[in-house]
Amino acid sequence: MKQLIVLLCTVLLAACGTAIPIKETYLPVAERTGMAQAKHFKGSLQIAPFSAQAPFAERSFFYRESAQRFVKDPYREWLSPPAQLLTLSTQRWLQASGLFSEVLPLAAKQAGDYQLSGELLTLHTDLQAQPLAVAKLHIRLSSANSPVILDTILTANEPLTGTTANEIAAGLDRALANTLKQLESTLISLP
After folding, report:
1. Whose CA is closest to 116, among 47, 52, 189, 50?
2. 3-state secondary structure 150-182
3. Helix axes 82-97, 165-189, angle to 10 degrees
4. Separation of alpha carbons 74 and 54, rounded Å
5. CA distance 173 to 158
6. Helices (H) and strands (E) in the chain, counts
7. Which of 20, 52, 80, 177 could be disulfide-bonded to 30 (CB atoms 3.0-4.6 Å)?
8. Where are the domains of the chain?
9. Alpha helix positions (H), 52-101
C-alpha cells in the first residue's frame, strides 16, 4: 500500500511539472538605406543617451490587449534596454544620412555643435484589432545658439504580418525605422 501511495504521489508530481520556456532575445536592426543627403547642418551632432518611460525601459516585449490592459511577455525580450538600442540606431542612421558634418561617437568627450536627445514613450504590440507594432519617440534638437531647434513627437504604427515572436520583433523594428525616417525628414525640413 505504501508503495502504491509513493508511486501515485510521484506520478502526480511529475504530471504537475512543466518545462520552463527558454527566453528569446531580439535585436532591432533598423538601418538606413539609400544615398546620403546633402549636408543640411554645418557642424557636429552629439547624441545623448535616450531615456524611456516606464515600463518601456524594460527589455521585455509588451502587448496591449485593451484600452487599459498591457501585458509583459516574460519569455521574449530585447537583447539590451530599448532606449540603449534606439540611441545606437539613431546614431548610425543620422551618420548614414549625411545631414551633419559629423555625428560624434556616443562615447566622445567633445561637445557637438548640435545636441540631440530622445525619450522612448512607447514600444509595444497592439493586439486590440488588427495587430500593430507601435513606436513613439519624443525628440529634441538644440545648439548653443538655439536652446530649441526641434521638439517633436514621432509616432509609427506598422501592421504585423502575424503574431509570432519573430513577426512581432520585425514589426517593432519597422516601426522604429519609420520613426527614424520621420526624424530625418523633419530635420531636412528645418531652415
Report:
1. 47
2. EEEEEEEEEECCCCCHHHHHHHHHHHHHHHHHH
3. 50
4. 16
5. 9
6. 3, 9
7. 177
8. 42-189
9. 82-97
Q: What is the pLDDT of residues 51-74, one digit of tens each?
A: 999 999 999 999 999 999 999 999
Q: Per the structure block, which three cell numbers stand in for 32?
A: 538606413
- Please tell me the distance from the alpha carbon of residue 64 to that of residue 58, in angstroms, as a whole number: 15
Q: Which amino acid is at 162?
A: G
- The whole-model pTM stands at 0.88
CA-nearest of 116, 122, 99 to 36 is 99
Dist. CA 1–CA 7, nearest whole Å:
10
Residue matched to cell numbers 520585425: 170
User: How do beta strands 114-126 and 132-143 pair?
Assistant: antiparallel
Q: Per residue in 128-167, pLDDT tens?
A: 989 999 999 999 999 989 999 999 999 999 999 999 999 9
For the beta carbon of residue 24, count every other beta carbon within 10 angstroms: 13
